[in-house]
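Data availability (excerpt). The following record was deposited with the supplementary files.
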Amino acid sequence: MDGTRELEGRVALITGAAKNIGRALAEELARAGASVVINTRAANRGADEAAEALRGRGHRALVHVADVTDGAAVRRMVQTVVNEFGRLDILVNNAVAHGSTAFEALDFETWERTIAVTLHGAFHCTQAAIPHIVKAGGGSIVNMGGAFGHKASTGRSATSAAKAGLAGMTRALAHELAPRNINVNYVAPGPVNTVREIPARIDPQSIPMGRFAEIDEVTAMVRLLCSPKGRYVTGQTIHVNGGFYMNA
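Predicted structure:
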């Protein structure tokens, strides 16, 4: 879809979008013609630079600082989006709290924070966004998951629980929101070539395609699901991981 602007006139909110996949998602949807809102939990130079770069290329973009675990802050953020751009069509729940700790050593605060950011954050953002997406005539919600919501890995119990919960929420919402012209999907990347807070401990040869994903291979799927040609797809978990999940 390069060179097309199939999302012209649409407005997209991407949470956790200061860097890596989130930032790339903002860039991908902007190239498709959408106005984009880059959410970050705290003031972040990376988020500001991303928005500035998009505006420099003629796109409409802004940064909004809000902790997605704070329902009131999320409602203010969504209202700011609508006040600024007049509508909201697309929500990408990308915010996540990463961790890698053996279960017996995992403290409850870390468990709770992981669930709060990944799952509760998606709850707050989706609930705040739905009325505005409906008012816009329908749109798309994409929940960003991961292979470890479906594939076992030592030290990832909190992340797995949060991502699996997000997959279940996706299916329920897809069923509930389809009559309101909103498609809801879950995109599960495997290992991606990004700057990592937690070093990857995965041998690329364990992936059937023999390599990690490039970031644009993930963002292209999200763009398709938000585009007119992808709107009939709903309630799906789509694994963008070179067959990594097949080896579960």
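Summary of structural features: Residues 11-247 form a domain with the Rossmann fold fold (CATH 3.40.50.720).
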